[in-house]
Amino acid sequence: MHSVNWTTFRPPVSFFLRLAQFVSVTRLELSSCRFRFAHDLRRLTNSLPNLAELQLNRISCAFSAVMEQPSHVIQTLAKLDMRLVCLEGHPDSLLATCASYSTVTHLQVQTEWFTSLGHFRNFVEGFPVLTTLTIILGYGRTWDSAVMAGPPSLESHSSVPSLATFTLICYRSDLYHSALIEQTLAWAAGTPSVTTLRDLRIGVAEYSTIAGLTIGLVLEKVSHTLETLHIEWRIPGSTFSLMGDCLETLHLTIHVDEDTRAFERTRYTIAMHSPASPVAIYERYIYA
Hints:
By secondary structure, the protein is α/β, with parallel strands linked by helices. The protein folds into 2 domains: 1-104, no CATH class; 132-137 and 151-288. It contains 7 helices and 12 strands. The strands form 2 sheets. The chain has a 10-stranded parallel beta sheet with strand order 1-3-5-6-7-8-9-10-11-12, with helices on one face. A two-stranded parallel sheet has the order 2-4. Helix 2 runs parallel beside helix 3 (91-99) and helix 5 packs parallel to helix 6 (209-221).
């Protein structure tokens, strides 16, 4: 559905009753849609009996009311994609509605939805059966106290369930995004879920020294369980120990900020920080 506006016209009850007949619909994508209330979104998805995947692109609501969901509704939603953000209207109402999908196991979300790390944590940690989390660092909205003065703290009392896959994606290189990298990775490293991770993906084109230290701490925490690692690495820059007891596959995207004549030295650096055990290693070099 694209560019639907329910602020001036709301469909009749018969519309939702007819939706219940679409038993073959398992995926719904909503783009640039505007609802009167956030619970109109939930009413729409509740009407599709076998909906398993929902993608929200620039969705907004005009009013802030949030209704409690009926207890008799059987939830089937497993994947929720909230990559593209619209901050018009009442985004907190939309967040509250999205948080009510208690059966979601795969969540993809952009940090621009949130005003602080605490705001982000309250949302993510509310999904009781979450196993796969992808975080995309936003472009405009800043977090309160985003810049950290020293190395990140790994203390956490998180109740986030056992994640098997964690992905952090950021393609911008500035102080603000380095701070977000530090905070989100420190949060991940401090959760009990870090001991259950099997697949870790860190797509960061550039990062500060503290962000590099945080990545190293995360890799240390997951060294006994991690099976697959995708990571972008900058040389010269931070180096990490890539050794792991269970590591099977390693994908390296390496940004080389030096002359190509230093290629052998670069390969030597990677060899010093790569697993000693047999691992499938896939390397891609990007020269500045």
